[in-house]
Amino acid sequence: MKIKELMIEGLFDEYDFHWNLNANTAHDVNILAGRNGSFKSTILDTIYTHIKETESIDKNKHISSLRINFTDGYKYTYSREDGNYIVSNNVTKKDKPVPIIVHEYVATKDDIELGNDDFRDLVLIDKIATFDRMANGNLLDLKLDKLVSGYGHYLYNLSVEITKTIQEENKIDLERLSKINKAKDLFVKIINEAFSFSGKQINEKSNELEFITNKEKKIGVKQLSSGEKQYLIIMLTVLLEVNKEYILLMDEPEISLNIEWQETLLENIEKLNPNCQIIMTTHSPGILLNGWGQMVTEMDKITTSK
Fold first, then answer.
1. 3 and 279 Cβ atoms separated by less than 8 Å
2. Is 174 helix (H, G, I), strand (E, B) or coil?
3. pTM of the entire structure?
4. Which residue of 2, 124, 148, 225 could cross-link 277, Cys pair, CB 3.0 to 4.6 Å?
5. What does the alpha-carbon distance between residue 21 and residue 295 come to, in Å, rounded to a whole number?
6. CA-CA distance, 233 to 132, in Å (whole number)?
């Protein structure tokens, strides 16, 4: 499931947004560009909050309504109603009106209502807010710890699949094994090429994610530079999507990435998961090279002031 259209009304009771996105095209890449303070990050945060951080919706008072049209006939709508109610039999309040906010949201499939929990289980989405993480190294390491753990589970599942294949076919089919390991091998190749300038490569003999230098010195992920950690977080996130149809939100992923990594970032993401829809913000000319500039939407083109 991917996003086709996004409509936000009443941001701070002042701005509306209407954005038609690329979905199920040759390149499902959508790049928001614009001045600082044009609400690019707010749009990404709003999408993620309403799909995954449902406990925060009642705290989200800055928009009046939201509609997201997805592929395959799915829709999500939200509205906020401001009102009052009277407190009765309460001397301290003196029966004065008390302001309240009512949040209403509904998900549908071909206009048939779905349970909100069921709908959110169907939408696979990741968010990488590298800008926020760079402000706090602990957050960067915490996210990396979680992904490294996920990578361990990923390798275990691959070994189970390989063992099962050998048992079923009663032989080692190298072509089949290569297919099973294709995404993992591509991930290793991408990371090794990116880190080659500093003499590091993934230690494939280890059962956990670690690196080894040209001098055979082992290095843990926490010993990497902030830029290396950030690049690893992005590529691990995409690898662990295991080729499923995901929505990937990225807020200024270029921060701390060198120009070579910026230039190949979107290409490598698409290689690791061709089924991923990329929705991102950026200020980087480097990311927009190699033809990606045509995927850019300027904020002033989708913004209306009341």
1. yes
2. helix
3. 0.87
4. 2
5. 9
6. 13
